[in-house]
Design a protein that fits this description.
Helix content: over 70%
Number of strands: 2
Radius of gyration: 22 Å
Distance between the termini: 37 Å
Order of helices and strands: HHHEEHHHHHHHHH
């Protein structure tokens, strides 16, 4: 494992230093192993590990390439990690979301368009009086993703997407519907939209904080 870790660090150094850039093809395995002073086996293991976290893209019959390294791509694994936690750690992830989401919502005030707000409002209207958990989750994912994307910060948007993907949102919505809190949560969605439409960043921040804290409260009661 130590040899593989060394190989990973050496490839990382090549990327960080600019010797390898996004989209570049890595040298042939034998050449790269000799250049880095590694065995071909340890290099192969390092490439496999880095491909799993989307740093490298192994294309059969073509070669190995550095990916785009876009935050959205690299942070996809965060959601995979979050999905494994169903105990008190799930609350810790929600607590992080409670810090980040209000900031993203406040930033979105100046950037989200009226047309985007109209679309989000129409999605809420389309839920009807008795939406299923699946419909609530789909709407919730789109609602918060669009607002986070409108913040203009791709890293922040990707972090929030990872912290609360469909699996964790399903867990929260099932808890909300069992406790009769779904209607209140949808009311909070509309309050966030109203603040965004008014371009009131502080009101948007406050309602986003209330919104995540409410989910945190109900999930805590269910654990």
């Amino acid at each position: 494992m130590a040899v593989t870790d060394e190989a990973i660090e050496k490839i990382k150094d090549m990327i960080v230093s600019g010797a390898l850039r996004p989209g570049d093809r890595l040298p042939k395995e034998s050449e790269l192993a000799a250049e880095l002073g590694l065995s071909r086996n340890s290099l192969r293991e390092a490439v496999r590990a880095l491909s799993l976290i989307r740093i490298l893209d192994v294309r059969q019959g073509d070669g190995t390439y550095v990916t785009s390294l876009d935050p959205e791509l690299l942070l996809q694994e965060l959601g995979f990690i979050v999905d494994f936690h169903q105990d008190d750690t799930a609350l810790e992830f929600l607590a992080v979301r409670r810090v980040l989401e209000p900031a993203a919502t406040a930033l979105a005030c100046a950037r989200i368009t009226d047309a985007e707000l109209d679309e989000l409002s129409a999605q809420l209207d389309a839920l009807g009086p008795r939406p299923s958990v699946r419909q609530l989750v789909a709407c919730d994912v789109e609602f918060h993703h669009r607002i986070a994307r409108a913040s203009g910060n791709g890293v922040l948007c990707s972090l929030l997407d990872g912290l609360s993907g469909p699996t964790s949102r399903t867990r929260v919505w099932r808890t909300l519907t069992r406790n009769g809190a779904a209607a209140r949560t949808l009311y909070e969605h509309r309050a966030i939209l109203a603040a965004l439409r008014d371009r009131d960043a502080e009101a948007a921040r406050s309602w986003a904080t209330v919104h995540v804290a409410s989910a945190e409260h109900w999930l805590r009661a269910a654990l």
